[in-house]
Structure formats: C-alpha cells, structure tokens
Write a structure and sequence with these properties.
single chain; seven-stranded mixed sheet; two-stranded antiparallel ribbon; 6 helices; 11 strands
Amino acid sequence: RARLLFLGTPDVAASSLRPLHARAAFDPACPYRIVGAVTQPPKRRKRRGKLIPSPVGAAAEELGIQVLTPERARDEGFLEEVEDMDVDVCVAAAYGQYLPKRFLRGAKFGTLNIHPSLIPQWRGSSPVQRSLEAGDNPVGVSVLFTVSNMDAGPIVAQESSEINENESTTTLLPALFEMGTPLLVDALPDVIEGEITIKTATAQDKALVTEARMTVFSEGRLWPHDMTAV
C-alpha cells in the first residue's frame, strides 16, 4: 500500500486525520497506510506549564501514528527524516508552514491539500474570513495539489454549499473541512493509481484569483461612535 504522510495542526485537521486513519485501518481495499503525521511543535499554555501537543499531534499519538514536530518544514534534519520514510503521497490540512520545494519533490504522487474555499477564489491564510466578509454564497471547499506558490496548484475536487446569513468562521471552517475530507478520501485511490496527477488535474483560472490576506487584530474591533442604530 502507498505510504501516506499527513500534515496538519488544529482541530479541523485532526478531524480529517481520523477518517483517513479509519479508512486505512478498517478497509482492506484501502490503497494507502499512514506512516506519519507532521504538526507544529507542542506549546506551553503557561510559562512553566507542561508542553501540550497540537490537536493533530494528540490525535496521532492516540491512533499510534508516528509524530514529527519540526520547528520549520525546511529544517535539514526534518527533510532527511521524511526522505528516509520513502513517502508516496502527502496530505496537508491547515498545517501552518510553507512547504519547500525539496519536500514537495519527495512524494511520488504529490501532496494534496484541503483548502476551505472555492479555489481560485480566496487563496491564502484567511479564506473563510474573507469569504464571509465578501458575502459569498454559496461557499465551498477544494482539494488541490500543493505547489510552491501558495494555493496555486491544480484542482482535484470541489464541493459547494449554501450558508445562512448568521454563519461565522467558528462554525463554517469545521463544516468545510468535514465536507472536504470525504472528497480527499475519495480522490486518493485515483491519485495513487496515477489516474489523477498534477498534470491532469484542473488548472486554476488565473483571471479569477482573489487573495485571502491574513486577518489582523484591528479588524475585529468595534467602533460604536461610527455605527448607526436602525
């Protein structure tokens, strides 16, 4: 079976890791097995508190998956360790670090990414926030190949959904990852069998690209003196 390396950090990524693992563990016909999970290093909630693993790190430990926690994805030791793992395919879900070309060259079938927008709309670090800010409806999720330029790879699968006017980032982000994970799981056999490749997947229309710049603290402030009650 193909050797799969997972990369992710927050709760939404852990919610993608678990179904991937379940498929590999309980489906004899599954074409992959998970050989490791890469995540951000553990952090202390208090200055002298104990180190707390990321949600993906905690889930991987619970599932018996080897955990890698490099400070930077470009670290020489990490890249050598991944190369020694002889990985066939990678899956990235909100990992939180830029993946260097050397890493991307390593996986035989490429690296797939779950991105919570209808690419090429909202490339970047805050797609859900920018989509809601723009009033997009429907919204959606994409599975695409990872390339050197952020979120610029060809598209493997997409799904869209209508949302209500009270939707927020805290509810929409996990919903989109929940929608995107089955798309990824369904696409993996075709990727591993060579039926979907970085060359045959759907290229993005550059004319439709919009950037989802990172949100900043000041954008969350309220200015009551500038607001009018109706």
